Amino acid sequence: MKLKPAPLYLLAFFSLVFLLHEIHDWVHVIVSGALCHCWGMRGFDTWTPCSNCTPGGNQQVVGLLFAALVMYVAIWASWFLMHPANSMRRRSIGFSLLFASLPLMRIWHACLRDADETSAFRAFFQHPRGQVAHFLVLGAALAFVLLMTLPALIRAFMLLPGWKLKLLLYPAFLILPGLVDHWVVHDQMQQLLLSGTFPNFIMRGVPTLVMAWLLINLTVYLLTRWSLPVFLDYPDTFDL
Q1: Nearest partner of 9 among 165, 223, 155, 157, judged by Cα
Q2: What angle do CA 47, 48, 54 make, to 5 degrees?
Q3: Cα–Cα dist 116/60, whole Å
Q4: From CA 210, how far away is CA 121, in angstroms rounded?
Q5: How far apart are CA 163 and CA 171, in angstroms?
């Protein structure tokens, strides 16, 4: 197996990370808006339902679950793409898609009890009272997240040949994308938005800066996506 850790691949990969993050946040607003018949507010790594949405109501639960579902569709698509019977090009796309979906962040936030899935489980079970019931719900949410992420993570680990790649490349893809995404989106772009940069709104509830960020990442991804299939199998590169 060859690797092509080229700058173009990194651009394609991280634009895909940011795009999936954006789609996730847009689903929150669109689904809750459709159910509540009003438009919420978008930010970077944040979203606020409109005033018609009852806090913790069924509309928000559906919005939370649909947003999580987007990421799980990507994760399970990556699982199918990484099937051993597929070509290395398809498996390379699956490998990148999996880690662009930030599976570790879903597990981490479930452990911290602030994941979409945890909030949805709490609301679905009507905010269970009592310590035992509370921890059962939290445990069920974490078990659900693990069930949805571990099969693809295991397949990605098995895809990499040799312990050198497994011990170096796998942890890097597991950990670094989430850190970069948090730093860029939450720490930089959100602070840029709060500082008043491009304060106007391109549409109700959507700042111009948020839409520009979406379009920039979409453009970068479309221009560089050809590098995703060749990351794990490229003739002019080197073995790691």
Answers
A1: 223
A2: 135
A3: 10
A4: 29
A5: 12
